[in-house]
Amino acid sequence: MKMKQADKRNLTMVMDLYELTMANGYFNGGDMESRVAFDVFYRKNPDRGGFAIFAGLEQIVEYIENLHFSDEDIAYLRSLNTFTDAFLEYLKNFTFRGDIYSFPEGTIMYPNEPIMTIVAPLIDAQIVETAILAQVNHQSLVATKTARIVKAAAGKLVSDFGARRAHNMDAAVYGARASYIGGAAGTATVLAGQMFGIPVSGTMAHSWVMYYKDEFEAFKNYAVNYPDNTVLLVDTYDTMQSGVPNAIRVAHEVLEPMGKRLKGIRIDSGDLAYQSIKVRKMLDAAGLNDCKIIVSNSLDEHTISSLNTQKACIDSYGVGERLITGATSDYSDDTLALLGAVYKIAAVEEKGTFIPRIKISGTVEKITNPGLKKVYRIYDQNGKAKADLLAKADEVIEMGGEFRFVDPQMPWRNLKFTNCTAKSLQVKVFENGKRVYELPTLEEIRDYVKKQLSEEIWEEEQRFINPHVHYMDMTPDYYELKMSLLHERGKTAEK
Question: Cα–Cα distance between 304 and 317 in angstroms, integer?
Answer without folding.
Answer: 8
